[in-house]
Structures are given as C-alpha cells and as structure tokens.
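Annex B. Sample input.
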Amino acid sequence: MRSVRHLRHLLVLPDRDAAEEVARALGERFGVAEEPRLVRDALAGEDDAEDAQWLVVVEDPEARMDAEALDAFVADWDGWWEAL
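Annex B, continued. Sample output.
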C-alpha cells in the first residue's frame, strides 16, 4: 500500500482525554512544532458530550508526516487518521 502525504491531518479520537494525550504525544513522536487543534465532533442528533468524538487537527506544511504512521500511532488510543 502506497503511503499518502497531506498538508493537514485529521486524527479522530473517542473522547477528550484521548485527544489531549495524542496532542501532547505528537510533539515527541513526530516533532510537531505547531500545537494541534482539538475540536469536539458531536454525533448527529446527540447533545451529550459523552457521545462526542474528538478531532485533533495537525498542520504539516512540509508534508513530513506519514499517514500510515499517524494511523498506527492513534490506534493506541482507539483512534484513526483521516484525510482532509
């Protein structure tokens, strides 16, 4: 499978705690210089914060991060990578 590179990555996490941990760990693992953005993504029709996924948006202006490596990284938190 050929690796795809993007200038912005979207990491989907099951909860806020996982998203915050991933955001902190990204700097150590991938050398992310710019602080990732955390965004709450409520599931359709749900108002309860417990039913929300959290997104970590990572800027990658030099296209250095590998999508497959990011996907494997967030899998430790039951998350996944998506292209923007």
